[in-house]
Amino acid sequence: MYKYSYENVIYLRISKFEDIYFKLIPLFKKYNIQGVKTLDFNDFCKVAELMKERRHLTEEGLKLINQIKGGMNTKRK
After folding, report:
1. What angle do CA 51, 43, 67 make, to 5 degrees?
2. What is the CATH number of the domain that holds 52?
3. Does residue 65 contact residue 56 with C-beta atoms inside 8 Å?
4. Is residue 62 part of a domain?
């Protein structure tokens, strides 16, 4: 995990799953995301849980993750 800034913007790049699962997700659960992005965050948490359970290593798990991903952001109905 590292951060850098450019002009008035700070960027945070997280690549380790442990940092996402144990730091980022709890942060956003404590300081709630508001608006439609809440739905995307909930889906993101579902995928993270599937990955924690190592279900992303199975074909069935990957299909489920792709299904969840397919309904996120602008593809949400």
Report:
1. 75
2. 3.10.28.10
3. yes
4. yes
Each residue's pLDDT, cut to its tens digit, for the chain (77 residues) gives: 777 777 888 888 899 999 999 999 999 999 999 888 999 999 999 999 999 999 999 999 999 999 999 998 877 76
For residue 46, give its domain range: 16-75
Q: What is the amino acid identity at position 61?
A: G
Domain count, the chain: 1
Does any domain span residue 48?
Answer: yes
Please name the residue that has the structure tokens 């109905």: 77
CA dist 47 and 45 (Å) reads 5
Output the six-digit token pair for 28.
């956003």
pTM check: above 0.90: no
